[in-house]
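Hey, resending since the last one bounced:
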Amino acid sequence: VELTPLPPTRACVPPTEAPVRLAFIGTPAPHKGWPVFTELQRRLRAEPGYEFWYFGAEDPGQPDIQHVEVHVRASDPEAMLRAIQEHQVDLVLHWASWRETFSFSTFEAMGGGAFVLTNAGSGNVAAAVTALDRGAVLKDTDALYAHAASGGIRDLADRARAARHKGALAATFSNMSFDFLEREQPE
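The structure tokens again:
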């Protein structure tokens, strides 16, 4: 995936007073950080000004988390990216429990205009967030919850909104291994 800046558009950017939209995208699995996301939602649910969203195929059955059904397919590889843009998600939590070598959801989040919250041990997720300055890399869950309690999440959402106002990122997806596998083999 390659992300390149696009010029500013007239796209709607939520005002600073709008609720912070925090999302989890993809499979709600422990190794991707689903329990951390639901714990963050539990800690912030009494605070005004936060909305929690889940974007993926199956409804996770969490009444306080809004579900948007999204199916990414070969025929529609940008479905998640579009859903994030359309719902003006500010932040996506990707709390990988190991060093990932690549993360489509990280690039989908950034390409959709969201910033990413991740941990220092997430590998390529943390590297992409740092290199593109589109999110926050935190030491551990204690640092995440402290960041939320101190208003850091609101500040990060304001940065994401300002970045969307300046212009989006275009995501160009490669065919990954398919380019290699589909090319003609010498006889």
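The mean pLDDT is 83.

Sorry for the duplicate.
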